[in-house]
Design a protein that fits this description.
Elements (H helix, E strand, L loop, with lengths): L17 H7 L7 E6 L2 E6 L2 H10 L9 H7 L3
Antiparallel strand pairs: 1-2
Length: 76
């Protein structure tokens, strides 16, 4: 097993290490998916089905859209 790490920025962004990008064949502009299960996270390159689902529900996910909401929940 290989372990790679990355540090979060103040905006909760992280760089995906080169070895991970290579293993997943990631390129700039690709979409990634996070699968959450019992406290474990699996990162993978998003599949067409993932993208179709996201596009289908994105209009229903309007909570916390405003600048005030962003400020209020920034530290979560």
């Amino acid at each position: 097993m290989t372990i790679k790490t990355s540090r979060l920025t103040r905006k909760y962004q992280a760089t995906i290490p080169g070895a991970v990008r290579q293993a997943l064949d990631l390129r700039a502009g690709d979409v990634i998916s996070f699968e959450i299960n019992d406290g474990e996270i699996r990162l993978r390159k998003a599949r067409p089905l993932d993208l179709a689902f996201t596009h289908a529900v994105e209009g229903t996910l309007s909570e916390w859209e405003s600048d005030a909401d962003e400020e209020a929940y920034r530290e979560l």
